[in-house]
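To: structure subgroup
Subject: Chain for Friday's discussion

All,

I'm putting the inputs and outputs inline so they're searchable in the archive.
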Amino acid sequence: MALDILIVDDERDIRELVSGVLEDEGYETRSAADSDAALEAIAARRPSLVLLDVWLQGSRLDGLELLDELKRRDPSIPVLVISGHGNLDTAVAAIRRGAADFIEKPFEAERLLLMVARATETERLRREVASLRASAGRDNDLTGSSTAINGVRATLKRVASTGSRVLVMGAAGVGKEVAARLLHGWSQRADAPFVIVSAARMTPERVEEELFGAEESGDIVRPGLLEQAHGGTLFLDEIADMPIATQARILRVLTDQSFTRVGGQRVVKVDVRVVSATSRDLMYEIAEGRFREDLYYRLNVVPVLIPGLSERREDIPALVNHFMAHYASERRVPTPEIAPDAMVALQSYEWPGNVRQLRNVVERTIILAPGDRIGQNRSRPAPGRSTGRAGRYGRRHQRNHGVAAARGARDVRTRISARPDPTFLGQYLTHRALHRHGTLRTAPQTQAARDHRNTRGIDVGE
């Protein structure tokens, strides 16, 4: 999204000239002729930068007084002061009051653009840091080459260049947020904010304040997530959990891209693309009276269904290798190689938690069996062993969750096909694995390992 710059000058020619120069360089501009119009524009939407004439003839507040008021309301707004000949002392005073810099009239376009770039550098860095923090540790692609996931990617690429609303559907853990981020990254809004609204994590009484922001006596108390997403993408995660009252207000935003803050009367205009996601059957929610039918049809312009992991088992090897490389690099250990029998076991499991569950199992494996060699003291018994309190808990855990090992399964394939508990699967792959030359294996224990099973320490490496 282009940075939003507010130009405050009492001379119309200056406003139009500066606006034209900045727009040619890709900036978004607004203008105000006096202090009241400037404060109104800032209350409607926070600008990335204010270009402020120091005099403002005929205005209720002059430039310096308006600068004080801006800094009182929001000290983080950068202000670039425009001064005329002989006003250097005033310009220096403005900097002391919080202005980022000043530029003297008359000025060349190149000089103006340089000063604007400097003044907005902090804003750019803030956005970049926020984006990096938001995406840190997250997957940035739908890994796999199956027909199902290739179809999803193709749909996202086709719709990315449009402004159409997208409804992403799928079970928990399939990667709905990953799909939404891909859609944002492939769109023309890629440089703008990607803001996540998790309705499930908000209390009903605070949903509207979080979305629309709050206002008291005409002053912004806090901008909402909709304002923060201006020019970018708003991702409504688990939309079915949003209260009915809030659904009605969201419907208005989708209709005319405007809303009022909580406690305020001023209409705020925004430009956002809405991408929503759900793991529920919205038609059932509509029939039960928990979701608005008109909102469903507003959101469901382009439906995208993310298949479960059991529907694209051919992608499991690529996903496992991706997660293994990621977590091994994160922990600075060699990337293990998955033996064929282990991969067969992973591909045979149903994965009710989908990609998220697979990722957790791989991460657990890297943590509990790092490096090229395992040479650790077995402070905990392997699954299925019973010693002391830990053994009793292990038996109770197996009994309560239907661990396949407790049913007497005889090999890896039998264990997996018997739908073991996912916790057991991760423990089985780590505690009972042999790790030779960086290769993680799920074959039965060697005789040497069995001979030492009752010792405190076991070295299963070579």
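Points worth raising on Friday:
The first helix runs from residue 12 to 24.
Confidence is low (pLDDT under 50) at residues 372-428, 430-462.

D.
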